């Protein structure tokens, strides 16, 4: 991914990002610099937090990247998958109901979520919930659409 532009954010833009992340994930970002990056060859809109790509915009909504979720583990909006789902989710597959062992009951259909694995608590993906968190554990069906995952272009991007 080739960087097209990179600029420091104003205090009000930083506050909006920090407030949105705190509200959706219960995470307090603690950083000295925030830079918005646009790419020539990608639609990703990313914010470098102290030089690392920790925030991405999904439909104009700021949310943590996989790296961001691992650096600042979310307290809310988390879907946890079992070991059998790890390779699929890591390859960008949507999350299926049989692989889910736990989901935040406050998740509502349409919310952005962070997907982690139960063994080590590492975050594997960011997605959009198709259904409410209370209904995610079960026997069949797709419940989270993958947006960003371990190993994709954004995950591999470094400055």
Layout: helices, strands, pairs:
Elements: E1 3-8, H1 11-25, E2 34-39, E3 45-49, E4 52-58, E5 61-64, H2 66-71, E6 78-81, H3 83-90, E7 95-96, E8 100-103, E9 112-117, E10 123-129, E11 142-149, H4 153-156
In a nutshell, what does this entry contain?
With 159 residues, the protein is of the alpha+beta class. The protein contains four helices and eleven strands; from the N terminus they run E-H-E-E-E-E-H-E-H-E-E-E-E-E-H. The protein has helices at residues 11-25, 66-71, 83-90, 153-156, and strands spanning 3-8, 34-39, 45-49, 52-58, 61-64, 78-81, 95-96, 100-103, 112-117, 123-129, 142-149.
Quote the CATH topology of the largest domain.
Archaeosine Trna-guanine Transglycosylase, Chain: A, domain 4
**Average pLDDT, all residues:** 93
Question: What summary fits the major beta sheet?
Answer: 6 strands, mixed
SSE series: EHEEEEHEHEEEEEH
Entry keywords:
11 strands, globular, 21% helix, alpha+beta, Nuclear Transport Factor 2, Chain: A, Archaeosine Trna-guanine Transglycosylase, Chain: A, domain 4, five-stranded antiparallel β-sheet, single chain
Q: What would you note in describing this structure?
A:
It is a single chain. With 159 residues, this protein is α+β, with helices and mostly antiparallel strands. The protein has 2 domains: 69 residues, Pre-PUA domain, domain 1 (Nuclear Transport Factor 2, Chain: A); 78 residues, Roll (Archaeosine Trna-guanine Transglycosylase, Chain: A, domain 4). The chain is 21% helix and 37% strand. It has 4 helices and 11 strands; from the N terminus they run βαββββαβαβββββα. The strands form 2 sheets. It has a 6-stranded mixed β-sheet with strand order 7-11-10-9-6-8. The protein has a 5-stranded antiparallel β-sheet with strand order 1-2-3-4-5. The longest helix has 15 residues. The termini are close together.
């Amino acid at each position: 991914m080739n960087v097209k532009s990179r600029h420091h954010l104003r205090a009000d833009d930083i506050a909006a990002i920090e407030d949105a992340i705190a509200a959706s994930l219960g995470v307090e970002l603690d950083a000295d610099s925030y830079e918005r990056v646009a790419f020539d060859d990608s639609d990703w809109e990313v914010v470098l937090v102290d030089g690392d790509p920790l925030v991405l915009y999904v439909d104009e909504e700021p949310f943590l990247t996989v790296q961001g979720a691992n650096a600042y583990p979310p307290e809310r909006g988390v879907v946890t998958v079992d070991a059998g789902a790890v390779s699929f989710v890591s390859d960008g597959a949507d999350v299926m109901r049989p692989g889910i062992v736990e989901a935040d009951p406050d998740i509502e259909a349409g919310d952005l979520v962070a997907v982690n694995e139960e063994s080590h608590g590492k975050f594997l993906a960011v997605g959009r919930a198709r259904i409410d968190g209370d209904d995610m554990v079960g026997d069949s069906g797709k419940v989270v659409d993958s947006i960003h995952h371990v190993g994709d272009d954004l995950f591999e991007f470094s400055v």
